Sequence to fold (152 residues):
Amino acid sequence: MVDISFKGKIPYSDNEPFKKGKIPIAIAINLFTSENPNLFVNAMVDTGSEWNVWNGEIAECYDVDPQEGPRIEMNTRLGNFYGQLVRRGFKIIGEEQESILIEGTWFHCPDWPGPTVLGWNGAFERLRFAIDPSVIDFYFSQLKAVDAGRSH
Fold:
């Protein structure tokens, strides 16, 4: 038997409508921009996405210096998009106000037409998480350096 503990849990949204499709699993995160410290958005959980991605409307909320991060091309099912990688924090806040702060790497592309996405690099590689579809809960804990096995 495996015994793994988590710091908190949050209900997730399943099959949330988004433009022309549905988001299979989304969790609420706090992006807390300097202009809006309580900017909560539903972010699609996608461990297959290389980076976190803001949707175009959220990207407009951030002042990003063109020299801040490297410019890259991201190939997606929606096409190829150009943007830059930047570091910004976000919080996951659980049902009982337990929270974790993650300094994530985000693909900043105001042209991105898809939803806000939490991807592997800059998000899930830094978390211990589980999804329980029987109760529609997302469990989370921040990895300790020893747990991570590697540093990013």
About this structure: The mean pLDDT is 87. Helices lie at 56-59, 145-148. The CA atoms of residues 58 and 116 lie 8 Å apart. The longest helix spans residues 56-59.
